[in-house]
Predict the 3D structure of the following.
Amino acid sequence: MGNGLERAFIQSIQDHRGAILKVCRIYSDDRDDFDDLFQEIVLQLWKSYSSFRGESLVSTWIYRVALNTAITSLRKRKRRPDQHPLQVFHHNQAEAADDRIDRIYAQELQRAIQALDKFDRALLMLYLEEKSYSEMAQILEISENYIGVKLNRIRTKLKELLTP
């Protein structure tokens, strides 16, 4: 690739870094998986950058590549045995009760999101990014009507998972 193309690629990654990080956050179990997934997504974007035809927005293309890479990575991780050591959590005794409640709720919400299937997680991420139904439909290659149906089902599923 030429030098101008490299600069354009780097600028695209910088402009859309937040989107890539969000995909990594949703599809990774720990910091190592997060870092590996981020690198893999950037590598896949680089490999396919010269063939990007501009038929969609760069952000749409980046989301699609990031989601496909994350889903492929998730499949590979599920096939290998769990290699993560036991994690030890240290609790700060001075932590305020409100902070603990917020942390616990955030952990429960993250577990509920992880319990969703990979397509639902992708759709939820795009929804939380405040993408329009049209943008979500284009990125996920489904109809706008189906977006609404799936979002309602996701809301119901999350309520079930978060209700004691």
In short: The domain at 90-164 is CATH 1.10.10.10 (Arc Repressor Mutant, subunit A). The radius of gyration is 18 Å.
